[in-house]
Amino acid sequence: MKNKKDIRVCIISSSFRPEVTVPLEKHCLATLKREGVSSKQVTFVRVPGAMEIPLAAKKVAQKAVYDAIIVFGAIYKGKTYHFEQIAGECSRGCMDVSLQYEIPVVFEVLAVYDPKDAIERATRKVENKGSEAALTVLAMITLLQKI
């Protein structure tokens, strides 16, 4: 079983919508630290927007040095079909990476109708999506080691 001090995690975040992604990152990192993973074990990659996340995840997975990837972003519903395109393709692309490279890709790209919902999910103390992503990564790493 891998020691928590040996775990390597990559967090890929969209630089678009920093009001959501920055708090997600902070809560995630705080939770990982509380669980015994130091900030030195975590690498951050920034991409321009949600559509760029899957390609970055693929490049990270290809390196075969990380135990898991966490992706953060925010997509707000507007008046066009663009929301559906970006949300669906980003999700599909991340799932493809996870399956192809057999690495957990924890998906916290928040696709919301109201921007306030994304900000709330990123900043609240209880059921914070950044904290949940950290706990999910650790659970998946442990599970995959057992299988």
- Tell me, what's the shape? globular
Q: What would you report as the Rg, rounded to the nearest angstrom? A: 15 Å
The CATH topology: Rossmann fold
Q: Gap between N and C termini, in Å?
A: 11 Å
Q: Give the CATH level 1 class.
A: Alpha Beta
Helix content: 40-55%
Strand content: 15-25%
Q: Which runs of at least 5 residues are low in confidence (pLDDT < 50)?
A: none
Q: What is the oligomeric state here?
A: single chain
Largest sheet: 4 strands, parallel
Explain how this protein is built.
The chain has a single domain, classed as Lumazine/riboflavin synthase (Rossmann fold, 3-Layer(aba) Sandwich), CATH 3.40.50. Strands 2-1-3-4 form a four-stranded parallel beta sheet, with helices on both faces. It is globular, with a radius of gyration of 15 Å. The protein is an alpha/beta fold. α1 (18-34) runs parallel beside α4 and α1 crosses α5. The protein contains five helices and four strands; from the N terminus they run βαβαβαβαα. α3 (82-101) links the parallel β3 (68-76) and β4.
How would you describe this structure in keywords?
147 residues, 5 helices, 20% strand
Protein topology:
Elements: E1 9-14, H1 18-34, E2 42-47, H2 53-63, E3 68-76, H3 82-101, E4 105-112, H4 115-123, H5 129-146
Parallel strand pairs: 1-2, 1-3, 3-4
